[in-house]
Amino acid sequence: MKKLLLAFVALLVIAFVAFQVPAVQDRLVGAVMKRNMDNRDRQALFADDAMRLLVCGSSSPFPSEDRARPCLAVIAGGKFYVVDTGSGSWNRLALLRIPGDRIGAVLLTHFHSDHIGDLGEFDMQTWVAGRPGPLSVYGPEGVEKVVSGFGQAYELDHGYRVAHHGAEMLKPEYGHMKPITAQLGDGPQPLFTDGDLRVSIFPVSHAPIHPAVGYRFDYKGRSIVISGDTTKDARVVAASKGVDLLAHEAQNQEMVARLAATAESLDRPRLRKVFHDIPDYHTSPVEAAEVANEAGAKLLLMYHLTPPPPKALERRFLAGVSDIRPKGVALARDGMLVELPLAGGEPVVTQLR
Ligand SMILES: [Zn+2]
Ligand SMILES: [Zn+2]
């Protein structure tokens, strides 16, 4: 045993010394560079054998070490469609080596800052990656104002990049966003089609924020609904009837109440007021499970997690959910991938790294 320990320590010392040798460090640098740049293995995500959903941001306005703010990417027909662009979400997709030139469109659920922070980055980064045209940004009324504001904020940056890399590589006319304002009805309205992909939009309840919407994606017999920010709403149930995957926001109200009490005890009245105010326009995990049950959704993926739980507290976040929905529940983490095989079968949940 003692010999084994000595050998182990000796190995550690040798490895430590070896890592200081410039030639070894050079090899490591090369390996890391290649690993970060090589996205050939990611092309498989775009194969036409499944409809997929990739979590590019599972948090809410709360800060989190390992969760970006809200962002879900639906992958179908060789492209990805991004629902909300919370801050840190472009970075998450870049770390996951997702090819930016395959972006199909951005769809915004509403214009709270946690949902739009990275919009300018999505436009700029996918343009540099080779997006073959302006970026369409769908949303309810107000989307023009948001897009035009980001466009103005990034105008100088666009000029610098064209001057530096040349208009041949960075076509100036492709570098802009094209806002598309959706008209809302009481239920799902067709928004756009792209090949076999059909996307519809429906209103949800996030008062006093009007409008606020969710989206439904249908592709070759498989389907995904994304709730956006909402209270428990019969219109989400109606839009999600028989859906394969319902991505629904979730806020643990008991934890938020404890946050309010903690803020009170620390004499932080502004924080206490925020924690006191937010329960009335979000959905608890148990209510999200009720929505999924009423809709007959195969898999419920909770995202926009408030507060974003550390891994060790994920079970606590879901307290009470298994009583009414023992199966078919997942709690989003950044990089989580849900695959809906086009050949049929249950949703498959894995983690991209
Ligand atoms: Zn939000
Ligand atoms: Zn919101």
Question: Which structural traits does this protein have?
Answer:
353 residues, alpha/beta, Metallo-beta-lactamase, Chain A, 8-stranded mixed β-sheet, 7-stranded mixed β-sheet, 35% helix, 25% strand, binds zinc ion
In terms of DSSP E residues, the strand content is 15-25%
Mean pLDDT equals: 95
- The top-level CATH class is Alpha Beta
The main sheet orders its strands as 6-5-4-3-2-1-14-15
Gross morphology is: globular
User: Helical segment tally?
Assistant: 13
Based on the coordinates given, report the CATH architecture: 4-Layer Sandwich
Q: How many domains would you count in the coordinates?
A: 1
What is the third-level CATH name, the topology? Metallo-beta-lactamase, Chain A
Low-confidence stretches: none
User: What would you call the structural class?
Assistant: alpha/beta
- Along the chain, the helix and strand elements come as HHEEEHEHHEHHEEEEEHEHHHEHHEEE
What is the share of helical residues?
A: 25-40%
The count of DSSP E runs of length 2 or more, i.e. the number of strands, is 15
Rg measurement, Å: 22 Å
Determine the N-to-C terminus distance.
36 Å
